[in-house]
Amino acid sequence: DSTDFDRAVKSVCPFCGVGCQVSLKVKDDKVIYVEGIDGPANEGRLCVKGRFGFDYIHHPHRLSVPLIRREGAEKGLNVDPGNWAEVFREATWDAALEAAAKGLGGLRDTHGGRSVAGFGSAKCTNEEAYLFQRLIREGFGHNNVDHCTRLCHASSVAALMENVGSAAVTATFNEIENADVAIVIGANPIENHPVAATYFKQFTKRGGKLIVMDPRGQSLARHATHMLQFKPGADVSMLNAIMHVIVEEGLFDTQYIHAMTENWDAMRAHLADFAPEKMQAICGIPADTLRAVAREFAGAKAGMIFWGMGVSQHIHGTDNSRCLISLALMCGQVGRPGTGLHPLRGQNNVQGASDAGLIPMFLPDYQSVADDTLRGNFSALWGGAEFSAEKGLTVTEILDAVHEGQIRGMYISGENPAMSDPDVVHAREALAKLDHLVVQDIFLTETANYADVILPAAAFYEKSGTVTNTNRQVQMGRPAVPPPGQAREDWAITIELARRLGLDWGFTHPSQVFAEMKQGMASLENITWERLEREGAVTYPSLTPDDPGQPIVFADAFPRAGGRAKFTPASVIAPDELPDADYPMVLTTGRQLEHWHTGAMTRRSKVLDAVEPEANCSLHPSTLRHLGVEAGGMVRLSTRRGSISVMARADRAVSPDMVFLPFAFVEAAANILTNPALDPYGKIPEFKFAAVRVDAV
Ligand code: SF4
């Protein structure tokens, strides 16, 4: 009976960056079902994850007591999450927090603050992200704090900061309603941002022209006027060829370029070398198609560009984003209704966690740690705290530093590097090597297998706090049910750990943390906790205490010196690891509709696990025939870093020389295979391209 519940609580879906608002129906302190409500990003809609992916919070594997590793218990993937007693012993909160503080604080006192690093979480609230970075900076005196943005949009952020002056989207995805042409590149929104995809489909239904660009086929192509299935890793050659046509045929917006941008002459000269007729062999798209797409986008009255991990997760990820920014700028497609640049954010709070300063080179609101004035402002806000002006290490650099013996202790909250990092064997060896590892999470994750102390945290539907979606909409998350057993909200745990490390912050509620954040973050001007409680969501920037927020920014000026955006030319560079005789195919990884990242939550959601229960990869039918494997049979995938066995599906969306592998399955962990080579600017790994061999099992 859908009306048989005790209470209904409004919150935000904990999965993707769309940030759908939900109503949680609760009976006997259990969420029994979820409905979409009228949030600004979803207008009542939900996808299968939002609708059915809630019962993980009541799963018997939930951590409900603090745990301390038993003396002498070996570290490694040997702990049954439902039966940990041989490896860990139950502890009181006091004992666990003391052990954590003694472990990390002891390393600080003996080896210096730089011997301890932190990974915060994009699944925690803004207030929790803020406290986490404050703990590392204030408590350990440096900036070695990062989170999963490093693995998703760090290269997009690098390019946007460089050329636009702001890392957030210039327009909400809902602005597609006012566009007549849109490009979706390196993103598969029907699977990964499903509710955003509904707006994209509506756009085409009313005549909007959609151009999809992706090395892998996808169902959004059914709605597209053009599907450019380019060769993996050939984005820059394709995008430069499109821009070449716009220059050659004079389709650019001279007035906009002169008024709003800089470095046009250099860009124009650079593009001379990229004629489509020359690039077609490199990118695999016929010159005529490249010319047609260039004309279509440049001819738009209002055009938008959306992109995802297919763009960002390359060693040339920053170059890819530079090209997309340049394409929009030369056509004057920023700052008006129906125009804009929109990197689709993955996690429900990756935008907010980044805004809150969970980044090694930036304080909250992307204020450089190297700037003495900005650093001084935060030092004053934090009672005179002293911390380094040196940019911190990023996620993958921190794990390398563990191998090198420079980092000996870590505090990891809500991240799972033992599954999510590239070349995960290297990452697991680093975790095993740590002198002291504190993991704070809702399940005994693969990373928690290496912990010395495990602190049980509340799930999103059990906590208070704000989150910021891909649209810059700050939304209020509200607790619907209590956490299991002794589990606590992350903000409260971080405060207690900080207190034992000598930092007495005095916060007793996230609203007080939000109030402090407002003092250091101009983006939160006119946004108050009370407003968010009352209105549910406010988009930043909000110009007055009543303004619901600005969906489009940078109409008159960009937040760069001189107010102008910049063209940065990008040259073609090859992927780090090209196929050869030993590893002749290309491996690319990603998500599936039903599963979320490392699978800790969705594989414990009954319906989602039932729909997609098995580790799988996708191969073209001709590749399967060549291997002598039936669809549904097993194959072995091997790269220079390791190999896995996995069930193969026949899928014409992948080309015959390519394999697609989702990364949610621990029994066939994709990141055993992936290449850790980094983009030099965003320091993002090349998850989207590795040389691989496929064998029948
Ligand atoms: Fe949740 Fe994203 Fe699905 Fe919305 S689209 S219900 S935010 S997973």
From TrEMBL:
Keywords attached to this entry: 4Fe-4S, Iron, Iron-sulfur, Metal-binding, Oxidoreductase, Repeat
GO biological process terms, semicolon-separated: formate metabolic process; respiratory electron transport chain
Presence of keyword Oxidoreductase: yes
One Gene Ontology cellular component: oxidoreductase complex
Domain of life: Bacteria
Aminoacyl-tRNA synthetase recorded as keyword: no
Gene Ontology molecular functions: 4 iron, 4 sulfur cluster binding; formate dehydrogenase (NAD+) activity; metal ion binding; molybdopterin cofactor binding; NADH dehydrogenase activity
Residue intervals of the 4Fe-4S Mo/W bis-MGD-type domain: 6-61
UniProt record similarity statement: In the C-terminal section; belongs to the prokaryotic molybdopterin-containing oxidoreductase family.
Protein name: Formate dehydrogenase major subunit
The species this protein was found in: Roseinatronobacter thiooxidans
